[in-house]
Amino acid sequence: MRSAPSSAPNLPPPAPLGTPAAQRPMDIALAGLVALAVAMGIGRFAFTPLLPMMLHDGLLDLPGASWLASANYFGYLVGAVLCTLQPWLWARLRVLPLFAFVTLVRGGLVATGLLTLAMAWPAPAAWPVLRFAAGVTSAVVFVYTSGWCMARLARLGVPALSGMIYMGPGAGIVLSGLAASAMTAWHWRAAAGWVLFGLLAWVLAASVWRTLRGGDERLHAGAPAAGQTGSGVSTPPQGRAEMAWLALAYGLAGFGYIITATFLPVIARTALPGSAWLDLFWPMFGLGVMAGALLVSRLPHGGDFRLRLIVCYVLQAAGVAASLYSPSLAGFVLGSVLLGVPFTAITFFAMHEVRRLRPAQAASFIGLLTAMYGVGQILGPALVALLLRRLPDAAAGFALSLEVAAGALIIGALIYAGMVWAYPMRAAKS
Question: Of 47, 103, 279, 77, which is closest to residue 184 (Cα–Cα)?
Fold first, then answer.
């Protein structure tokens, strides 16, 4: 991870005590946690536990579900690209207003609740548009929540605490998974689930609304020219190549986990029909996500974090393989946990690696990596949809998809190993 100074790039000095910026580190971390729980755990992943209910209600079939998931992930990609291009757009379109990061986060949380509620509307033709918009919103909230929290906590001298914010997606997954399990037991319809999750998104957003304040982290109307850092020091070609490899490897992580993360309850129902554990594997994945994020916050903040990324990719590959080659209760429990534990750890390590390589342009390059992750997420469900139509049954389609996903994660780990060899750690530019 980064060996850069703890001060955040492109930001003014810390505000004096008594200003809105003078917040407690734990309050900032909790606000980030809740924001990501809403945007990711609900806005992105509520679809996974509700999918069996939608299938049961006859609202869509598995290939249709795959394309609906891809619409959400395509929106995530578009949102990430917009975040990446934001400095370029604002530099050329001077009429665009400059928003504080937290303004965008607040707006995204409100929009997440609205778009989730709207999925209860019995208009299947509108669902791809709604899921696309939810994906755009989740990317914006992710990028600017990460930027706001990481910058604030770094300036307060507790950068490792930013690992706590990545417990948010796991917390949202656990909450939505347990709620969906209860709704299934009570024979609720999927539409009622979407309404419940939309209202829950607003309640959670309201709980951190006052903490999400302070306008010193803002969109900027331009970025240093390509090849330049904020201090005017040229970025060597090696640095550009290293960033490209990092982006590719991070994209493979998006592809490697997304098939399981989208279809886990459905895959489990195919392998273990009638099991009482079917609705609990998804919350187990969420608990693994939370445990991994907590573990990350306890690890020493230093060293070569590409080595940690290698371990994370191998663990996720093992998680995918566990449910594939051992489709039993033990296999799904182990697979859910192994897939979940490295989930946000990968994001945490990769985002800080961006800050090490591009401290003066971190927000823009976080958007770039998020976009690559989004590409991987789009390709995963699309692959499932293709194989489900071409192979004789759902089990064969899921099996081949998971084999490809596990292979992608191993390739990602090998890329990081090559980066460690080709690009030894060096001091970050300030």
Answer: 279
End-to-end Cα, the chain, rounded Å: 15
- Quote the pLDDT of residue 95: 72
Q: For 154-222, where are the E strands, in sequence order? A: none
- Fill in the amino acid letter for 243: M
Per the prediction, the chain carries an average pLDDT of 84
| pTM for this predicted structure | 0.79
Looking at per-residue pLDDT, the higher value among 236 and 319 belongs to 319
Q: How many CB atoms lie within 10 A of CB 298?
A: 8
List the alpha helices (DSSP H) in 219-361.
237-271, 281-298, 305-325, 329-340, 343-357
Cα separation, 294 vs 70, whole angstroms: 30
The residues near 170 (Cβ < 8 Å, ≥ 6 apart) are 41, 286, 287, 288, 289, 290, 291, 292, 293, 340, 343, 344
Rounded Cα gap, residues 272 and 409, in angstroms: 26
Rounded Cα–Cα distance for residues 400 and 343 (Å)? 22
Cα distance between residue 41 and residue 39, in whole Å: 6
Q: Is pLDDT at 235 greater than 50 in this prediction?
A: no
Sign of CA dihedral 105, 111, 115, 118: positive
Q: Is the dihedral of CA 318, 319, 320, 326 positive or negative?
A: positive
